[in-house]
Amino acid sequence: MKIVYYSITGQTRRFIKKLDLPAYEIEPANPFFEINEPFVLVVPTYDIEMTEVVNDFLDFKDNAHQMLGVAGGGNRNFADLFVYTAKDIARDYHVPLVFAFEFSGTNEDVQNFQKVVMELESKRA
Ligand SMILES: Cc1cc2nc3c(=O)[nH]c(=O)nc-3n(C[C@H](O)[C@H](O)[C@H](O)COP(=O)(O)O)c2cc1C
Q: What is the CA radius of gyration of the chain?
Protein backbone atom coordinates (compact mmCIF):
# COMPACT_ATOMS: atom_id res chain seq x y z
CA MET A 1 0.00 0.00 0.00
CA LYS A 2 1.22 3.45 -0.89
CA ILE A 3 1.06 6.73 0.96
CA VAL A 4 0.16 9.63 -1.32
CA TYR A 5 0.77 13.05 0.17
CA TYR A 6 0.88 16.75 -0.48
CA SER A 7 3.05 19.28 1.32
CA ILE A 8 3.46 23.04 0.94
CA THR A 9 5.86 24.07 3.72
CA GLY A 10 7.43 20.64 4.31
CA GLN A 11 5.79 19.51 7.59
CA THR A 12 3.77 16.71 5.97
CA ARG A 13 6.83 15.65 3.97
CA ARG A 14 8.82 15.35 7.22
CA PHE A 15 6.04 13.23 8.73
CA ILE A 16 6.02 10.93 5.70
CA LYS A 17 9.82 10.48 5.73
CA LYS A 18 9.58 9.23 9.34
CA LEU A 19 7.07 6.51 8.36
CA ASP A 20 9.49 4.53 6.24
CA LEU A 21 6.69 3.45 3.89
CA PRO A 22 6.50 3.69 0.10
CA ALA A 23 5.21 7.15 -0.75
CA TYR A 24 4.34 9.39 -3.67
CA GLU A 25 4.30 13.19 -3.37
CA ILE A 26 1.70 15.04 -5.45
CA GLU A 27 3.54 17.60 -7.57
CA PRO A 28 1.79 20.96 -7.88
CA ALA A 29 3.27 21.49 -11.35
CA ASN A 30 1.74 18.23 -12.59
CA PRO A 31 -0.74 16.48 -10.31
CA PHE A 32 -2.06 14.34 -13.19
CA PHE A 33 -0.35 11.10 -12.29
CA GLU A 34 -2.11 7.75 -12.46
CA ILE A 35 -1.34 5.88 -9.24
CA ASN A 36 -2.77 2.45 -10.20
CA GLU A 37 -2.58 1.00 -6.68
CA PRO A 38 -4.40 1.40 -3.35
CA PHE A 39 -3.21 4.26 -1.20
CA VAL A 40 -3.85 6.35 1.90
CA LEU A 41 -3.84 10.10 1.29
CA VAL A 42 -2.13 12.49 3.73
CA VAL A 43 -2.94 16.19 3.31
CA PRO A 44 -2.11 19.36 5.20
CA THR A 45 -4.86 21.91 5.88
CA TYR A 46 -5.16 25.15 3.92
CA ASP A 47 -7.75 27.22 2.10
CA ILE A 48 -9.31 25.27 -0.75
CA GLU A 49 -7.44 27.11 -3.51
CA MET A 50 -4.14 25.98 -1.97
CA THR A 51 -5.09 22.31 -1.97
CA GLU A 52 -6.93 22.11 -5.30
CA VAL A 53 -4.03 20.16 -6.82
CA VAL A 54 -4.94 17.32 -4.45
CA ASN A 55 -8.42 17.25 -6.03
CA ASP A 56 -6.79 17.37 -9.47
CA PHE A 57 -4.81 14.26 -8.53
CA LEU A 58 -7.85 12.49 -7.09
CA ASP A 59 -10.04 13.32 -10.08
CA PHE A 60 -7.47 12.02 -12.57
CA LYS A 61 -8.36 8.66 -14.15
CA ASP A 62 -9.19 6.04 -11.49
CA ASN A 63 -7.16 7.61 -8.67
CA ALA A 64 -10.06 8.44 -6.33
CA HIS A 65 -11.26 4.83 -6.44
CA GLN A 66 -7.88 3.61 -5.21
CA MET A 67 -8.05 5.78 -2.06
CA LEU A 68 -8.75 3.71 1.08
CA GLY A 69 -8.71 6.58 3.55
CA VAL A 70 -7.41 10.08 4.26
CA ALA A 71 -5.27 11.50 7.07
CA GLY A 72 -4.96 15.18 7.90
CA GLY A 73 -2.07 17.29 9.12
CA GLY A 74 -2.88 20.60 10.73
CA ASN A 75 -2.60 22.88 13.73
CA ARG A 76 -4.98 22.51 16.69
CA ASN A 77 -4.94 26.30 17.23
CA PHE A 78 -7.38 26.39 14.29
CA ALA A 79 -9.87 24.68 16.64
CA ASP A 80 -13.00 23.69 14.66
CA LEU A 81 -11.04 24.12 11.45
CA PHE A 82 -8.42 21.55 12.54
CA VAL A 83 -7.67 19.23 9.57
CA TYR A 84 -10.77 20.38 7.67
CA THR A 85 -9.12 19.73 4.29
CA ALA A 86 -8.90 16.00 5.11
CA LYS A 87 -12.42 16.06 6.55
CA ASP A 88 -13.79 17.65 3.36
CA ILE A 89 -12.02 15.04 1.22
CA ALA A 90 -13.40 12.23 3.42
CA ARG A 91 -16.91 13.62 2.94
CA ASP A 92 -16.63 14.41 -0.78
CA TYR A 93 -14.94 11.16 -1.82
CA HIS A 94 -16.72 8.85 0.65
CA VAL A 95 -13.62 7.52 2.41
CA PRO A 96 -12.91 7.38 6.16
CA LEU A 97 -10.82 10.00 7.94
CA VAL A 98 -8.30 7.57 9.43
CA PHE A 99 -5.87 9.86 11.29
CA ALA A 100 -5.10 13.44 12.30
CA PHE A 101 -1.84 14.96 13.54
CA GLU A 102 -0.15 18.31 14.03
CA PHE A 103 2.73 19.60 11.87
CA SER A 104 5.30 16.83 11.24
CA GLY A 105 3.83 14.51 13.89
CA THR A 106 5.27 13.16 17.15
CA ASN A 107 6.97 9.76 17.44
CA GLU A 108 3.68 8.50 18.85
CA ASP A 109 1.82 9.83 15.80
CA VAL A 110 4.28 8.01 13.55
CA GLN A 111 3.71 4.71 15.37
CA ASN A 112 -0.07 5.13 15.51
CA PHE A 113 -0.35 6.02 11.85
CA GLN A 114 1.84 3.05 10.87
CA LYS A 115 -0.64 0.86 12.79
CA VAL A 116 -3.58 2.45 10.96
CA VAL A 117 -1.94 1.73 7.62
CA MET A 118 -1.21 -1.88 8.63
CA GLU A 119 -4.83 -2.34 9.70
CA LEU A 120 -6.12 -0.98 6.40
CA GLU A 121 -3.75 -3.32 4.60
CA SER A 122 -4.86 -6.39 6.58
CA LYS A 123 -8.54 -5.56 6.00
CA ARG A 124 -7.92 -5.70 2.26
CA ALA A 125 -6.05 -9.03 2.43
C1 LIG B 1 -2.07 30.02 5.69
C2 LIG B 1 -2.23 28.81 6.57
C3 LIG B 1 -3.50 28.36 6.88
C4 LIG B 1 -3.70 27.22 7.68
N5 LIG B 1 -4.97 26.81 8.00
C6 LIG B 1 -5.15 25.73 8.80
C7 LIG B 1 -6.46 25.31 9.18
O8 LIG B 1 -7.48 25.90 8.81
N9 LIG B 1 -6.58 24.20 9.96
C10 LIG B 1 -5.50 23.48 10.40
O11 LIG B 1 -5.68 22.49 11.08
N12 LIG B 1 -4.24 23.88 10.07
C13 LIG B 1 -4.04 24.98 9.29
N14 LIG B 1 -2.77 25.38 8.95
C15 LIG B 1 -1.63 24.60 9.47
C16 LIG B 1 -1.01 23.66 8.43
O17 LIG B 1 -1.98 22.80 7.85
C18 LIG B 1 0.06 22.82 9.14
O19 LIG B 1 1.11 23.66 9.55
C20 LIG B 1 0.61 21.71 8.25
O21 LIG B 1 1.48 20.90 9.03
C22 LIG B 1 1.36 22.24 7.06
O23 LIG B 1 1.77 21.16 6.26
P24 LIG B 1 2.86 21.33 5.09
O25 LIG B 1 4.09 21.95 5.73
O26 LIG B 1 3.13 19.93 4.65
O27 LIG B 1 2.29 22.19 4.02
C28 LIG B 1 -2.57 26.52 8.18
C29 LIG B 1 -1.28 26.98 7.86
C30 LIG B 1 -1.11 28.10 7.09
C31 LIG B 1 0.30 28.58 6.79
A: 13
Q: What is the pTM of this model?
A: 0.98
Give the Å distance between the CA of 51 and the centre of ligand 1.
11
Pocket test for ligand 1, best of 78, 84, 101, 104 (most atoms within 8 A of CB): 78
Q: Whose CA is nearest to atom 5 of ligand 1?
A: 46
Residue range of the domain that includes 90 = 2-124
Nearest CA to ligand 1 atom 1: 46
Which has the closest alpha carbon to 51: 101, 88, 98, 77? 88
Cα 123 to middle of ligand 1, angstroms: 31
pLDDT tens across 48-102, in order? Answer: 999 999 999 999 999 999 999 999 999 999 999 999 999 999 999 999 999 999 9
Tally of structural domains, the chain:
1
